[in-house]
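Supplementary Note 3. Input sequence used for the single-chain structure prediction.
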Amino acid sequence: MAKTRGKNFTVDLKTKRAEKLTKRTTIANMTIATVFARDQVKLKLNRGQPTKTFDSGRIIGLDPSKPGEPPKKVTGQLQRSIIQRVVVKSKNVFGLIGSTVDKAKFLEFGTTRMAARPFLRPTLQEERPKLRRILARGFRGV
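The predicted structure, written as discrete structure tokens, is reproduced below.
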């Protein structure tokens, strides 16, 4: 308790409640941000091309993307494989966005025989200001 001009006042900090509300808001914002980012990555991958199908069932693209461009769609497998997840560990909240198919890392980073066709990192970089605004929602007065 502290005194000011002869009047008593108390400060009652409800830290547990504030921590809980902060964590809940952070998780909600992270979920919104990762869903937004996932959808933006999928939009970047939504570029079709003419294809040729062989009798064996194999499909090839006839107008592939150039090095440095996002990959063009042949079957849509890469686009469908983009996922997001929010992980909470202790007091930390992590947003994860990635792909469940192995070829995603080869396209993103390239190989010794193929130049990179990045799609994930450039999209996250382009959307960085929007993602920051989404993550800051609800924390204006803090």
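The chain has one domain: 15-136. The helical segments are 15-44, 77-80, 103-109, 120-126, 128-136.
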